[in-house]
């Protein structure tokens, strides 16, 4: 099967053609009515030689074809389809670049989408079939993509351990439950002993995310995973003696004694475990030594930076100082100098702590204009582009103009990339995609934040912005993502209560 998003054709006709417009209309009619069917038949002759379910997605495919207008429309369509099919086969055989991607099957494409969604990365150009999910929160995008696609569970089963942790962390408890119900109909049932004892216990959000995690890791649906997860949560609230009694009551199938020890809600969920031997639970209840030292917590008044990092990472830029420059513009002229001096922001972008404003300006003057012009063009053709990306409110130009202390004559070349970053965030906020940049900052980016660096992750706690409720609805406040220029430890975002 071949699907064409947009077919653009340019016709060169002899200079003595008396009716060039009629020729164009004829060829357009051939392309619209006859070419699809003929092309489908032409590809069927190629398909047996490529007996697989691969998906090839082309951003663009250029080819030339000579058509004899003295032939009938069917003959023209045959020649046209033959050249197009040959161009496809030739392009597939060439080295891959940014205009072509390949997946083994639809599950591979789906896997790329949900891992990008969990990491907070913008949707890529080749993921356009998921465009309808753009306005959903991160957790809803993952749940919808998995539960509405027949290959959804297959995509989850292909994940590496790190990718699976990322997906589970991005899901809400309710959406994890819906995916859990889906895998119950798809995967074979597994015993309680199939639960991997090496995985960390459930977090405080509930047991469904943990049950989903262990079932996918075990590659089977484990009905006992949910009651085990609830038991582990209950054990955290009891002292060691009470935990020992609870395990004894379960092993000896003594429901009345267990009911007296825990709440009715917990008992109803844990009840299916009655009669399970003690040895089954012991590996999960053994305390695990936490070797990670408690890190220092660092603070910044510019917490909105953590909502902008994934978009800045998506820019086709290799120079970190240019990214830093764009960030200062997105934060606004009124805050640029304080943000420039913020030690936490500098560390996030690997900026030398000794960099002065004067040195920053001199560095700007040394950048060739043609480089900035090319950078601007590449940004405006990147995967971040949306319908609102070029929208400018009246107050935006003054907002983006850096103060003289930090700017040079080249500052204007980065206005469009900075606007693109701000509009990329606004695109995720229903009803605010074209709001002015001062309004966006005041309502969604103006809050403090802190960060703690552990051995395997970065924990970011976000203060409450004025419209925190809307941010929470979109899932942005619980993003998990990695940044290409830093060590591959994920940033885990958590909103703090107002």
- Approximately what portion of the residues adopt beta-strand conformation? 5-15%
Q: The biggest beta sheet, please?
A: 5 strands, mixed
So how many helices?
A: 23
Structural class category: mainly alpha
Enumerate the spans where pLDDT stays under 50 for 5 or more consecutive residues.
288-294
Radius of gyration: 28 Å
- Average pLDDT works out at 86
> What fraction, in percent, of the residue positions are helical?
40-55%
Q: Characterize the overall form.
A: flat
Termini separation (Å)?
52 Å
The helix/strand series, from N terminus to C terminus, equals HEHEHHHHHHHHHHHEHHHHHHHHHEEHEE
According to DSSP, the number of beta strands is: 7
Q: Number of folding domains?
A: 3
Strand order of the largest sheet: 3-4-5-7-6
Q: Can you tell me about this structure?
A:
This protein is mainly alpha-helical. The protein folds into three domains: 20-100, no CATH class; 172-285, no CATH class; 297-495, no CATH class. 49% of the residues lie in helices and 6% in strands. The protein is built from 23 helices and seven strands. It has helices at 20-46, 73-93, 106-118, 138-147, 152-157, 161-170, 173-184, 208-218, 225-237, 240-251, 255-261, 264-270, 278-285, 305-313, 320-331, 336-341, 343-348, 357-365, 369-379, 396-400, 415-427, 437-445, 468-474, and strands at 55-58, 100-103, 297-300, 449-453, 458-462, 480-481, 491-495. The strands form two sheets. It has a five-stranded mixed sheet. Strands 1-2 form a two-stranded antiparallel sheet. Strand 4 and strand 5 form a beta hairpin. The protein is flat. Mean pLDDT is 86; it is low at 288-294.
